[in-house]
Specification:
Length: 393
C-alpha cells in the first residue's frame, strides 16, 4: 500500500491556490494513480513506477490509500471566530467532495475528530529543536502580518509545522501533495523523522520496549516525500497544476486565505459575476506587445497565464500561448474569467448538492475519522513506546 495524505485549513473560503495547488492534484491522483506532471520528482521514472509497479515492490500491485483531511486544528493558529469554525469545516469537506474527491476511493475526515493528531504533536514538540522552527518562513510571514509577535500571536502559530509533521507521520504517508509554499514544512517533517528515529528507535533497549508492547521494532516513522507541482508544468497535452498561484493584487505574493483583501483571490465558491469583476480589476502591467509567460519582470502576466492554463488542463501550453500571445489585457481578461467560471461551475453545482444532504456528509466524515483513527492510534502507540511511556494494558 502506498499512502497519500494532504489537507487544507477550513479558515475562510477555499481559493484557486488551494484548489489548483492541492485539491485538483488530489483528485487527479485519486483517479489516475498519478499526479499531474511533476518535474520536481524523478519524473518519467516515477510515472512508470506508478503505472506498472514491477520494480522495488517485487511485482506487487501498489494500492493507493488516500487520506484528505480538513485541518481545523491548524485553523485556530490564527485569530478565528468560534461561530464560524464548524460551518467552514463542513464547507471545506463538502468542497473536497464537490471537487471530485470520492469517499468510495478516498478517506475524508476532520483533523480534530482524530485525537492522535494533537497528542503526537505534543510528543514531537518535545523532540524538535526551537531553532528549527525559528527558521520557518511561513511563521515569520504570518507573525509579521499579525503585528509582530509578543501577545499578538499564539504559541500554536510557532509550532504549526510540528502539528503538520504529526498529521503526516501518523499515517506513515509516503507522499504528501502540497503547494510550493509548504516545501519548507515538508523538509522539516523529514528532519523530525530522522532525528526521532535516530534518537529513540535504535538499540537493544528499543527492541526490548517494542517486544514488551507487542510491536515490531522498526523505526516509528516513515520519511515522507513531498509532491510539489511546478508552475503550469506538464507536457503532452496536459498543462499540469500550479505550484503557487499568486495574488490578483500582487503577482509576487501568494494567493492566500489570510489576506484580508478578498479581491486578491478567486474563491472556489465565488459566483460568476464576482469572478468576472475580480479578474477585471486584477493587477496587470503596461508592457507593450502582448501577453507572455515567464518574463521575470511580469509576474502578473505569468500568474494569469498559469491560471488560464491550469483551469483548462486538457489543453497544451503551446496551444494556449498561441491563442493569447497577441492579445491585449482587455481581450485576455474576459477570456480568462470565462475559463475560470466554466471550470468552477460544475464544482459549485455539486457543492450545493452535497451541502443539501448533511446526513451524507456527516456519515462520510465519521467513516473517514474511524478509518484514520485506527491507523493513527498504531503510530501514536509506536511513538510512545519509542519514547518510553507506559502503555495502558
Ligand atoms: P493561510 O494563508 O491561512 O495559510 P492558505 O491559503 O495558505 O491559508 P492552507 O490551508 O495553508 O491555505 O494550504 C492548503 C493547501 O493549499 C496547501 O497544500 C498549500 O500548499 C496549498 N496552497 C495554499 N496557497 C496556495 C497558492 N497560492 N498556490 C498554490 N497552492 C497553495
Ligand atoms: Mg498556508
Amino acid at each position: 500500500t502506498r499512502r497519500i495524505l494532504s489537507g487544507v485549513q477550513p479558515t475562510g473560503s477555499l481559493h484557486l491556490g488551494n484548489y489548483l495547488g492541492a485539491i485538483m492534484q488530489w483528485v487527479e491522483f485519486q483517479n489516475t494513480g498519478k499526479f499531474f506532471a511533476d518535474p520536481s520528482s524523478s519524473g518519467k521514472e516515477d510515472g512508470e513506477e506508478d503505472a506498472a509497479d514491477d520494480d522495488g515492490d517485487g511485482g506487487i500491485v501498489v494500492v493507493n490509500e488516500n487520506f484528505f483531511c480538513v485541518v481545523d486544528l491548524h485553523a485556530i493558529t490564527m485569530p478565528q471566530d468560534p461561530n464560524e469554525l464548524e460551518e467552514s469545516t463542513l464547507a471545506s469537506a463538502a468542497l473536497y467532495i464537490a471537487a471530485g474527491i470520492d469517499p468510495e476511493k478516498s478517506r475524508v475526515f476532520v483533523q480534530s475528530h482524530v485525537p492522535a493528531h494533537a497528542e503526537l504533536a505534543w510528543l514531537l514538540n518535545c523532540a524538535t529543536p526551537m531553532n528549527w522552527l525559528e527558521r520557518m518562513i511561513q511563521y515569520k510571514d504570518k507573525a509579521k502580518k499579525a503585528g509582530g509577535g509578543g501577545d499578538s500571536i499564539g504559541v500554536g502559530l510557532f509550532t504549526y509545522p510540528v502539528l503538520m509533521a504529526a498529521d503526516i507521520l501518523l499515517y506513515q504517508a509516503d507522499r504528501v501533495p502540497v503547494g510550493e509554499d509548504q516545501r519548507q514544512h515538508l523538509e522539516l517533517a523529514r528532519d523530525i523523522v530522522r532525528r526521532f528515529n535516530n534518537e529513540y528507535c535504535r538499540g537493544n533497549s528499543y527492541k526490548a520496549r517494542c517486544k514488551r508492547a507487542g510491536l515490531a521494532s522498526r523505526p516509528a516513522f516513515t520519511e515522507p516525500e513531498a509532491m510539489i507541482i511546478s508552475p503550469g508544468g506538464g507536457g503532452d497535452g496536459g498543462t499540469g497544476g500550479v505550484a503557487r498561484v499568486m495574488s490578483l493584487t500582487d503577482g509576487t505574493s501568494k494567493m492566500s486565505k489570510s489576506d484580508p483583501n478578498d479581491n486578491s483571490r478567486i474563491n472556489v465558491l465565488d459566483p460568476p459575476d464576482v469572478i468576472r469583476e475580480k479578474i477585471k480589476r486584477c493587477k496587470t502591467d503596461s508592457f507593450a506587445g502582448g501577453i507572455e509567460w515567464d518574463n521575470p519582470d511580469r509576474p502578473e502576466a505569468t500568474n494569469l497565464l498559469n491560471i488560464y492554463a491550469a483551469v483548462q488542463p486538457h489543453r497544451s501550453r503551446e496551444e494556449l500561448y498561441e491563442e493569447v500571445k497577441g492579445m491585449k489585457w482587455g481581450d485576455f481578461k474576459p477570456l480568462l474569467a470565462d475559463a475560470i467560471v466554466a471550470h468552477l461551475g460544475p464544482i459549485q453545482k455539486r457543492y450545493a448538492e452535497v451541502r443539501a444532504d448533511e446526513g451524507y456528509l456527516r456519515r462520510v466524515l465519521n467513516e473517514g475519522a474511524n478509518a484514520a483513527d485506527e491507523i493513527a492510534q498504531r503510530t501514536l502507540k509506536a511513538a510512545k513506546v519509542a519514547m518510553g511511556f507506559s502503555i495502558p494494558k
